[in-house]
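Standup notes
- HV: blocked on the assembly model, inputs below
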Amino acid sequence: MIQQKQALVVGAGLVGSLWAILLAKRGYEVQVYERRSDMRQAGFIGGRSINLAMSQRGWRALEKAGVKSKIESVAIPMYGRVMHDLEGDLTFQPYGKEGQAIYSVSRGGLNLELLNIADSFDNVSLHFDERCKNVDLDKNEVRFEHIKNGVQSNVQSPLIFGTDGAFSAIRNSMQKTNRFNYSQSYLDYGYKELSIPPNSDGSHRMDKNALHIWPRGKFMLIALPNVDGSFTCTLFLPFEKEADSFEHLQTDAQILAFFEKYFADTLSLMPDLLADFHQNPTSSLVTIRCNPWHYQHRVLLLGDAAHGIVPFFGQGMNAGFEDCTILDALMEEHGEDWINIIEIFNTPRIKDADAIADLALQNFIEMRDLVADPQFLLRKQIEMYLAKKYPSQFLPVYSMVTFSHLPYSQALAEMNAQNRLFEAVFNISNIENGWRDNPALDEVFKNWLEQRAVLALE
Amino acid sequence: MIQQKQALVVGAGLVGSLWAILLAKRGYEVQVYERRSDMRQAGFIGGRSINLAMSQRGWRALEKAGVKSKIESVAIPMYGRVMHDLEGDLTFQPYGKEGQAIYSVSRGGLNLELLNIADSFDNVSLHFDERCKNVDLDKNEVRFEHIKNGVQSNVQSPLIFGTDGAFSAIRNSMQKTNRFNYSQSYLDYGYKELSIPPNSDGSHRMDKNALHIWPRGKFMLIALPNVDGSFTCTLFLPFEKEADSFEHLQTDAQILAFFEKYFADTLSLMPDLLADFHQNPTSSLVTIRCNPWHYQHRVLLLGDAAHGIVPFFGQGMNAGFEDCTILDALMEEHGEDWINIIEIFNTPRIKDADAIADLALQNFIEMRDLVADPQFLLRKQIEMYLAKKYPSQFLPVYSMVTFSHLPYSQALAEMNAQNRLFEAVFNISNIENGWRDNPALDEVFKNWLEQRAVLALE
């Protein structure tokens, strides 16, 4: 049981500022230290993607923080994927049931709202331009240095939360302690953001209520809508070694030839392609895993600091926010008994974070390759049908991750089970010509359910 | 092509001191910096295991360094494993063919010899008590601080080798560079060293020409002979959570009861058991992997700094030494073209290091559990028979790792293939009663060879 309800939150990004709010609501005195300048004065400085896909887990957290309706009013629902093929022909694939959507949200705008709410609490104090210089885990003390005036200060707290992102300084200090498992693993792919500006009347140049994908097998382009009428596009491409890679996109001619070959329908939409391409960085994609997430139940990592994942399931922020809602529920139940709270939280949450890390890596293959595959699209259609016909027995994995609060590890296990189901489904002759009330499909499905029941008993 | 034949070696443990010798022999001016004091004056300070199992790969490196015969004269051959069961009954299992052995060698003695040889070169300078304070990768510069007098010095070199062990400071600086893949993964097991002293006449209290194992399923004790007539024992046991774990071995009564239950035959051999148990640390077991091992072909990690592995295949030092012999052969071929040398070295060597890391993890299960399994011992006997009958077509994995220079990754692939073979072998009825010139075995073996040939063509 901690003696004083005090907490230090290191990092005021999305997860840090949300977590400060939830702690404040529980009556904690919260000190928040952030390396960057206050974006409310300095403006939002990127470094991370411009927009995000908010889904169920994220919304629940925003509701707890009391900011859901405000964010909702400027979020753009995306009801499905629109695939662009080489000829520019479009295919639509819904994400879930009628009306279900993921929402394109501005990272900067969301962070700003969360900071405003955090700042509105008397028991929260925000400190910007403070770089973490040193962490003394045993003393529960962090030394910060003010970036502009060089003043150093030691901040001690019975609880320290590391919400300082994928390159967390708090985690880096924990890495040197005994038996701390850690991995950072990079994809051979980089990404670069590009922009599709609005029409002159401010409207979007493509359907704004969808996530656009140009799947090209080994690489892809995607686009998410912004409220100002623009789209932010992201090109995911191997760094090098492949013929189609960033390494071989140096000159204007190379870049234009590449886009003409693979993304011809975007050329007329991206007047600033060459300037964007040259100016914007080529960023890397890392997966971070560690275990435990805490040091002696007094220092705890949350969000990307604990589990940085690749963006292909749109769950990075959602998973970080869910860390906070789960912990908040544990505070509800266990009060200030943080030894117990962290003990209960650590192991299953790491399992779930590992699962969404794996799912996100796998979803890259789905997005860049499978969504262009007729059999994959057929499977998605049959999934929708089964979900509607057997709502209590079949929930597609995408829906489980995106539109439910079921543990990510359950979604990962379900994926393997559903892969087995669809192996059998695709053995049904002529299934592509009719699955609605097809008795062969019903039988395959019932056999699968029975098998699962048997497996569950074993 | 580097301009000057200069190199900085950070860390003068086994791999660092060997590597300094090989560089010196190729005409490099070598600066060696080591954090510890010179063991030739200060005595050997542990922290790592007291003895090591030297095998083929290690001997080749020592031969290159010109120290093989000297070490050989004080190495103790171990021709196989002696398993001690709960009743104290013994089973012997040879490691290889007649005369093949792994050799118990003193870590301190070996390190000392290597330092002496390194020091005998005019173009090697050794610096002790120098702690690495900072690494500037882009400037090729390392700052050291003398532990005793606090004097700091910057050492710049066109080539820097990080041979500073599993907790490498050089690697730690590389970890912060973009796209550096890294993992540190701990077993839930700890280990503790204990001692069996010599008889009063200086002789060994057990057969000295074997590695002794007390396999107990989830944990084990092992013992390796020392030249002074003693054995160094190591207890590998879960840290906690299990009934049999270090957590539950706190009092004298608990420790004695545990040894009486599981290792009764050792009690009379270990008069200092309780003192050893309380005084000696419980150490952890880590696997370190990273990729790439170099920074811009100018800074290169070797040995545990690049690939720390668990000790269960006795290959940690052997693998580190093999790094050096492979690089030495590349120097022979490519002169000072280090860009080329490191480019050729990096990818396949990482694959091999990953393979021996996996093999070492798997061998823990073999040592603590399988060696007590009659079917496993039968397999080992049939392996020996097949190796003798089909010497060009069948080499047991243990021999491949221990008595050959074949790449570790080939041994790992071979293990999977041989597991398939033995699935079929154990389907032969009555195989346990006779495998010599058993036509069924010959047929299974020939089918397996044919399958492999087909697989190889695919």
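- HV (later): unblocked. Residues 373-457 of chain A form one domain. The interface with chain B takes residues 167, 175-176, 178-186, 239, 284 of chain A (CB under 8 Å).
- Next: hand off to the docking folks.
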